[in-house]
Amino acid sequence: MSESPASSQSPEAFGASEAPQTNGAQPRVRGRLRGHSGAAILVDDLRVKRGKRAVLHGLSLSVPRGGVVGLLGPSGCGKSTLMRAIVGVQKLQSGTVTVLGRSAGTASLRHRVGYVTQQASIYDDLTVRQNLRYFRAVLGASASDVDRVLDATDLGDHASAMAGSLSGGERSRVSLAGALLGSPELLVLDEPTVGLDPVLRVDLWSLFHRLAEEGTTLLVSSHVMDEATRCDRLLLMRDGELLADDTPDGLLAQTGATDTESAFLTLIQRHPSSAEGGLE
Amino acid sequence: MNPGRTLATAGRVLTQVRHDPRTIALLLVVPSLLIGLLAWIFADTEVFNTIGPAMIALFPFIVMFLITSITTLRERRTGTLERLLSMPLGRGDLIMGYTLAFGLLAILQSAIAVGFAVWVCGLEIAGSIWLLLLVAVADAVLGTTLGLLASAFANTEFQVVQFMPALVFPQILLGGIFLARDQLPDVLREISDWLPLSHAIDALQAVAADSQDAAWIGGELLILLAWIVGAIVLGSITLRRRTP
Fold first, then answer.
1. Over the stretch B5-26, which tens digit does the pLDDT of each residue have?
2. A274: helix, coil or strand?
């Protein structure tokens, strides 16, 4: 915990982790998150097939408003599919997804939800600024918003560089900057920190916590377990099913493990259908 | 649909093209070069004056079809389409934005092709050159909108390139270039009456020979326009926000 600047800059976001690992920690966080009206995301019995493969089989979960919620699990466990369902671009077999009180994908939600795909979805043959200007125009955000998000993602120096000439990490930051335009209430970020310099990763996590303090809900996926400690809440997924929905400390207390990786392993062993396979 | 978002999309596509000077050069010059080559091949005959107008319809149509279908497929493949569809962009905004951007390029391309054919290659135009240009532009825009529609049904670059022979070649074969349409077998003649390129070629030949009045040309233009609108509408409908 101590290596994370996020925890020192925003102690409130880590309120739970600073309390001793008792049952008292959990209600405190829950209470704070519940303080906002209703859940940000409600998924009920969601079933999704991609091609012939069933990816999500009856997934139900709820994400409270405000705070950074980590969606963790090995690659291929259905994180991206769940995120696609939440932003309303995934065809569903059955079940419902409610986002900010409305059915996911509703036209009015498209202003209120920001989405970053795993692969940087930007135009390589435009400059960084031209990319953001276009997304800004589509969102109808104010013109000054472009400079704000360039600043927030530390891309000011690259503003006039062609997106295609940037490194992978820089490109994914441009993609993230695009999602910050118009200050959406919910940010759905699919592996936003993959391949980033450690310093930059820390910077991004403090940005996420800053946004959370301003009231934004962030759903951040990752297959790197050590990012779990940076989240206010965790959703652990495996093979299209939810293994745990808890605070990082609650998870450790529940499993008696010392880190998230081993907590995850414990949960897999406890799970009824855990006979086969390892993590990856 | 929203005019601001449509124009922003058109502007974005044009900015992308602007960053690629080689594409612009190819786009604007290749049809004229092909027309020039044809004029050279038939230099000592009267053939160029008969098929020249058809070529003005053909090359821009093919080039715009290919460029549009590949560009929009790329949008699908790089994930930007998924991003846009999760944003408040209407499906019509996207299709119209592309149509406007490539339509503008089509106007430039057709203008150069017509100018080159008439003033450099000596194509004889008995009718109005403006009317000739108007039909040529409508035809190139049609190539654009059909390309947009085709890309909706393609998942890979291989597929989208195959749509060219599948959708465009039959129109060329039946369009009256190889054999005048009234000499085609009855069934093929019937089919060719329904194909948009046939009407574009008929109209261009009529302007070149000044064989029909403006009202008749207007009728042919309306048919092209109906195809353009149809392809835009169908393209918007087939663009799905939710994908499997």
1. 999 999 999 999 999 999 899 9
2. coil
